[in-house]
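Private note to self, pasted from the team thread so I don't lose it. Backbone tokens:
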């Protein structure tokens, strides 16, 4: 099977993977600012007092495209009289630029990214303004609970105002499921299924195709959110404590899930594949399900421009939540919004809050969300209903069914980068036949030791 997969992988296009490559959605935590060298910082002129804001943004959808961002910031300026100078950061060196700017006391007024950076790093170090006063009871009721929790530090401060969210999921080849009679185990209205449904479907697919139909890929961290979500959801396991102070993926529920997966003939543990590789094989129709999936893949599978929601052979792809014992999954996702650097200028801080309010909680939020090409982090904004924001896009509109399933944003747990390595290494050992309970305990302990150190 592995030789077949290798041959197929060699024949497909070498295309980059959106979100499942461990880049934008799950970035490596930035280095401490005190360790940075003389990395060149973006050129920022001293803004006129109260009249200009500087915004640095990572490439979050079209928030990384100058023409798109200029359109919305020009509208903001026309409304408020506050001009906005934008610097576009890349993930390759954006952290270095920000850290160097902080060291030089030349940080921007606003920054757009996710909780890994805004809450766990720069907020935790005291560089960002606490935005708690921007949320009243209505805001808290409208904002997705998981997003609100992720943007809130353990000290109670809110260092990120969320704008958009997304949820990672899995996908199935619906034509293949129908051919094998496994489609009876799917709820295509809610895009959910139980753990038993999943097991029955894998068995039916394997009996029909006589080959593995799904792969627990573990070559590296690329797309590892998929394998974590698969294991955690099957029996309601966890990955970290709610306080995000230690890793808990050695719990009995996760061990039970791994033991079941290892004993399923239709599932293979494959150390030759990362998430992007798995998608390519799924796209070619060899695997019948993919555990590394998201809205970008659903809109343009394998970035091949050969039809939304279709494999290379024209078979229908359906996105699904991960199988869960009680059917309701807890999905890992992405959360992006704005933070304000505390540069000691209250007028700038007030104007930055005006910017955030305009983008995240006003009639203009629809445009700000659509610029990101994700989903609104809240249900409504100052009376504007955001539930039908994607009514003009059938796939985006349907995908919104997954947003209520957004689970714990455990990527903010200390020692995150090390924990990811321990996770995929653990999966490799399980695939090699090591004792599952002992192996899981060992690598979870390694993750916690590194986090504590």
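Design output:
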């Amino acid at each position: 099977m592995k030789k077949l997969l290798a041959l197929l992988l060699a024949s497909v296009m070498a295309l980059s993977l959106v979100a499942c490559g461990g880049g934008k959605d799950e970035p490596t935590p930035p280095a401490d600012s005190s360790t940075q060298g003389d990395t060149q910082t973006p050129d920022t002129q001293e803004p006129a007092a109260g009249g200009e804001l500087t915004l640095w943004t990572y490439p979050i959808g079209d928030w990384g495209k100058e023409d798109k961002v200029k359109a919305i910031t020009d509208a903001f300026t026309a409304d408020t009289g506050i001009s906005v100078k934008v610097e576009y950061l890349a993930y390759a060196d954006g952290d270095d630029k920000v850290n160097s700017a902080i060291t030089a006391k030349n940080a921007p007024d606003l920054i757009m990214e996710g909780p890994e950076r805004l809450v766990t790093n720069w907020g935790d170090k005291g560089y960002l303004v606490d935005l708690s006063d921007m949320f009243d009871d209505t805001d808290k009721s409208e904002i997705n609970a998981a997003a609100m929790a992720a943007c809130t530090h353990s000290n109670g401060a809110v260092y990120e105002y969320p704008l958009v969210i997304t949820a990672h999921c899995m996908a199935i080849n619906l034509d293949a499921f129908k051919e094998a009679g496994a489609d009876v185990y799917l709820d295509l209205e809610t895009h959910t299924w139980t753990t038993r449904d999943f097991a029955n479907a894998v068995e039916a697919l394997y009996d029909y195709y006589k080959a593995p139909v799904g792969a627990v890929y573990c070559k590296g961290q690329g797309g590892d959110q998929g394998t974590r979500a698969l294991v955690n959801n099957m029996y309601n396991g966890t990955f970290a404590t709610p306080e995000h102070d230690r890793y808990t993926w050695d719990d009995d529920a996760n061990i039970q899930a791994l033991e079941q997966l290892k004993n399923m003939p239709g599932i293979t543990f494959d150390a030759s594949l990362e998430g992007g590789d798995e998608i390519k094989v799924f796209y070619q129709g060899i695997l019948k399900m993919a555990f590394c999936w998201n809205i970008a893949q659903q809109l343009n599978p394998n970035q091949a421009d050969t039809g939304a929601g279709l494999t290379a052979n024209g078979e229908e792809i359906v996105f699904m939540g991960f199988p869960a014992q009680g059917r309701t999954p807890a999905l890992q996702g992405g959360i992006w919004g704005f933070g304000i650097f505390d540069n000691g200028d209250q007028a700038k801080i007030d104007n930055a809050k005006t910017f955030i309010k305009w983008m995240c909680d006003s009639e203009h939020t629809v445009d700000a969300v659509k610029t990101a090409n994700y989903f609104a982090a809240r249900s409504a904004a100052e009376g504007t209903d955001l539930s039908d924001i994607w009514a003009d896009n059938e796939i985006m509109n349907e995908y919104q069914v997954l947003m209520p399933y957004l689970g714990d944003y455990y990527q903010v747990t200390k020692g995150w980068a090390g924990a990811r390595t321990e996770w995929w290494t653990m999966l490799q050992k399980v695939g090699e036949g090591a004792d599952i309970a002992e192996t899981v305990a060992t690598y979870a302990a390694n993750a916690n030791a590194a986090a504590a150190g």
